[in-house]
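Handoff note, outgoing to incoming analyst
You'll be picking up this chain. Sequence as last confirmed:
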Amino acid sequence: MSVAVYPDEALTEMLTATYGTTDVSLRLFSNNFTPVAATVLADLTEVSGNGYAAKTLAHASFTISALSPGAKAVYAQQTFTFSGAAGLIYGWYITNTGNTKLEGPVVRFDTPFNILSSGNTIKITPDLRRNGGL
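Most recent structure output, in case you need it:
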């Protein structure tokens, strides 16, 4: 049986190709969905209204580095501030800026955020890690 791994250097290059050259968007989803490997963009219902807007993550602002094992791409904390009730928010995901395909993880919060009124916030620090397993 053959053994295949992605070395840390290759993982760093993969993250650089994904996040270091093209802007992406950080978005929130409002449907009670648990992501799986077969998740597609159509599975997610993006939050709308009440001050919500997706956040553009500029490619030049990612910090990409090797780990041992793996690699990571980190972005500064992003704050979503709401102007009114938005209900339950179950998680976040990353797409291309045109919102036509997933470009990163789909993350479900341990406990959904319940946005009840103006001024409520959700803070997310995108910390995107890959390890060498296939």
